[in-house]
Design goal:
This protein is of the alpha+beta class. Among the domains are: 139 residues, Roll (PH-domain like); 74 residues, no CATH class. Helix content is 44%, strand content 26%. The strands form four sheets. A seven-stranded antiparallel beta sheet has the order 7-6-5-11-10-9-8, with helices on both faces. Strand 15 and strand 16 form a beta hairpin. Helix 13 packs antiparallel against helix 14. The longest helix is centred in the middle third of the chain and has 28 residues. It is globular and about 75 Å long.
Length: 486
């Protein structure tokens, strides 16, 4: 006898209070434009009509959204003007993440997003916006019951906490450019609006001009720089606190849970069976203060950005310990690396000092003032330090079923990739690399950023590194006959 069809379910009716607010915020530029247009044409009802339509559209979203969980399939039906049904096989579900903004939290709601291990964006994202927060544990258990079932021996495993957020991590926040980017964006908007709202002739602008004349341009600029840097540090710390406060990373059998956020709480679940390694990211300033960020290399998860982040900038020892515990091998994380030889080092120095050499020739050909030569000395010193750091960072490691590649200075990364996850190899050589006798080895994988590079290895070792990582390379004609890389 055929089982009766599963009934469609609606989301929480509390979303009738959330959807209109979100639609108004989303359509704010349109509302402002309609207000300006209505004032210019004398039609003051235009803005009211647009606002009423926006609120009505937000209310209609709840009435036109429903979902159902069948025996083998999860379906979501949405669309006000154009109906759409998104279906996911239940045995393909790999992650369930939650996102609760402030208004959601005040109403006891949570947005539930379901992932299948494939990258999704736009209309392909399966999101239930929103369900009651007290229903999320039951819903997560139902959705992950088929895809993340664990053996009976592991059911009793209470799990373990891998990392907790510490207030001391905030010291790494001002070392990023987040605050400066926020200030630059605000100044850009202010500059665009200055001519429209008359800021050029405002009291604030006149006060700034008077201060510049009274104290001098140099002092005014120095004070402005200090103010911008202090504001940038404050904004960066505040953003980091709100985004990553109360972070908790926990592993339960084959499921990895990540939760973080103060006002907007986000929770992610990852299938550990799809983990193919990790990346330690060390921006220069963060690295100077002993910090690092940890990203997961996992199929179906982007390798760079918030989607793959497991730990924000934190003490490097913490990031290394968590990665070593996740992959259950400490050697790829902290073990020594093999250098790439004098040719690779020489390329770092040549590329870093090319600009200072050209600048020196230009200054020598022109009657350059003394201060220009002083600036050239400073720039040359910085380039030399950059070259030395890039040469020191470059290296790789193969063995124990892992490929490790490290490179970079301003943004140094250490990629630890599981050898079984590598599905293809490419050896590339530019004209200058051929002359130097080095090559770039590219490992292709379905996880993370998909392509991980071992830069400037000796050309004669490129395919041996690939064969040592992936034994199936040794059975091919390329490994037996040896490719011609000259």
């Amino acid at each position: 006898m055929t089982a009766p069809p599963v009934a469609w379910q609606r989301l929480s009716p509390r979303m009738l209070l959330v959807h209109p607010v979100h639609e108004v915020v989303r359509q704010l530029p349109v509302l402002v434009g309609s207000l300006v247009l209505g004032s210019a044409t004398g039609n003051n009802l235009l803005a009211v009509v647009v606002l009423a339509l926006t609120v009505a559209f937000g209310v209609a979203r709840w009435f036109t959204t429903s979902y159902r969980i069948g025996p083998s399939e999860l379906q979501l039906r949405t669309g006000v003007l154009q109906r759409k049904v998104l279906a996911l096989p239940r045995n393909r579900i790999r992650s369930v993440s939650t996102d609760a903004r402030l208004l959601h939290r005040l109403l006891g709601l949570t947005v539930v997003r379901v992932g299948t291990g494939q990258e999704a964006s736009g209309d392909t994202v399966f999101a239930l916006d929103a369900v009651r927060a007290d229903e999320v544990p039951r819903l997560r258990a139902v959705l992950l019951a088929d895809s993340l079932a664990v053996p009976d021996a592991e059911v009793a495993d209470p799990g373990r906490v891998l990392a907790r957020w510490q207030p001391a991590w905030l010291r790494y926040s001002p070392l990023s450019l987040t605050g400066l980017a926020m200030i630059a964006a605000a100044l850009g908007v202010l500059f665009q609006m200055s001519s429209e709202v008359g800021l050029e002739d405002s009291q604030l602008a006149r006060s700034g001009m008077d201060a510049a004349q009274r104290f001098g341009v140099a002092v005014t600029v120095a004070v402005a720089v200090v103010v911008v840097l202090v504001a940038s540090a404050v904004l960066s710390v505040l953003r980091s606190l709100l985004t990553y406060g109360n972070l908790l990373l926990r592993r339960d059998a084959e499921v990895l849970h990540l939760q973080h956020g103060l006002l907007r709480v986000r929770e992610h679940t990852f299938d550990m069976r799809r983990l193919r390694g990790g990346t330690l990211r060390e921006p220069l300033l963060v690295r100077l203060f002993g910090g690092a960020r940890l990203d997961a290399v996992m199929t179906g998860v982007g390798g760079a950005g918030e989607a793959s982040m497991l730990l924000p900038p934190c003490p490097r020892a913490t990031a290394e310990a968590v990665l070593a515990e996740l992959i259950e091998h400490p050697e790829p994380v902290t073990g020594p690396l093999r250098r790439h030889g004098p040719a690779a080092t020489r390329r770092r120095w040549v590329r870093a000092l090319a600009l200072p050499v050209v600048a020196a020739a230009a200054l020598a050909a022109l009657p350059a003032p003394l201060w220009a030569w002083a600036g050239w000395v400073v720039v040359t010193g910085c380039c030399a330090l950059l070259a030395a750091d890039r040469a020191r960072s470059l290296g790789h490691r193969v063995g124990g079923g892992w490929l490790v590649a490290r490179a970079g200075s301003l943004q140094r990364t250490r990629d630890c990739i599981a050898a079984p996850g590598v599905i293809g190899w490419t050896v590339r050589q530019s004209l200058f690399q051929r002359r130097a006798g080095v090559a770039t080895l590219v490992a292709a994988t379905a996880a993370g950023v998909k392509r991980y590079r071992v830069i400037d290895v000796p050309a004669e070792l490129a395919w041996s590194i690939a064969a040592q990582t992936s034994p199936w390379i040794a059975d091919t004609r390329w490994a037996s006959d040896g490719p011609d890389l000259r």
